[in-house]
Design brief:
mainly alpha; 6 helices; single chain
């Protein structure tokens, strides 16, 4: 899987060969990627795989806000109720 040059900005200090096997590749793109990065990710990783990753690792590797966003986008409620009001909007 060839990672676009523009997307490599999210992985400073990593050689091209190292990027394909990094376990945090999906996390970094879901957390910090822009539109082009996310377009590349969704073209190269099936939605079912993204949803499975979210269920298995999303709670540990994404911020609460990003996790809630991707749960909504992928129509998932991994790990129970997403605490949007309590943790994101405490007012």
């Amino acid at each position: 899987m060839e990672i676009p040059q523009e997307t490599r900005r999210l992985f400073p200090g990593y050689a091209d060969a190292d990027l394909a096997g990094l376990p945090f590749l999906i996390a970094r793109l879901l957390e910090d990627g822009d539109e082009a990065d996310l377009r590349w990710l969704t073209r190269n990783v099936p939605e079912a795989d993204l949803a499975a990753w979210l269920e298995q690792r999303g709670g540990r590797q994404l911020s609460i806000r990003s996790r809630a966003f991707w749960d909504a986008v992928l129509d998932r409620r991994a790990g129970g109720e997403v605490p949007i009001r309590k943790d994101l909007w405490p007012l």
